[in-house]
Amino acid sequence: MESKFGHIVFHSLPENQSFYDDLFVFLGWKKLYQDKNMLGVGLDDGSSLWFSTPLKNYVNDYDGPGVNHVGINTSSKAEVDETVNFLQNKGIEALFETPRHRPEFSGGEDQTYYQVMFESPDRILFEIVYIGPKQ
Fold this sequence. Notes:
This protein folds into two domains: 1-55, Roll (2,3-Dihydroxybiphenyl 1,2-Dioxygenase, domain 1), CATH 3.10.180.10; 68-135, 2,3-Dihydroxybiphenyl 1,2-Dioxygenase, domain 1 (Roll), CATH 3.10.180.10. 17% of the residues lie in helices and 39% in strands. The protein has helices spanning 17-26, 77-89, and strands at 7-11, 30-35, 38-42, 48-52, 70-74, 94-101, 111-119, 125-133. A hairpin with a 5-residue loop joins strand 3 (38-42) and strand 4 (48-52).
């Protein structure tokens, strides 16, 4: 068998759809679909993320059972810093003392793992991260 990542569907409140639209356009993803109840964004490799209206009234807890966070890789440390500025302009705070380097995840002295973590308006935890040579 040969497989690859396909997609993830997140339930999000309709009033928060514009946040995800703005974020993923900023990150360079393509908009695949949008109506009042659903937004789909994707990459050239066919992978995609979908944000659709929830069926139940439930507050997400990323520290409970289920998905903890979604990591999005960038190609430079500067892009992580640009994301921090984007988030600040949206009133979204960085969490867990980020942005910062995480040497324990870097894979070597000449490498870095530089991240910002934040919570979306629907309490979905995201990590934007550069992993690679120190710049």
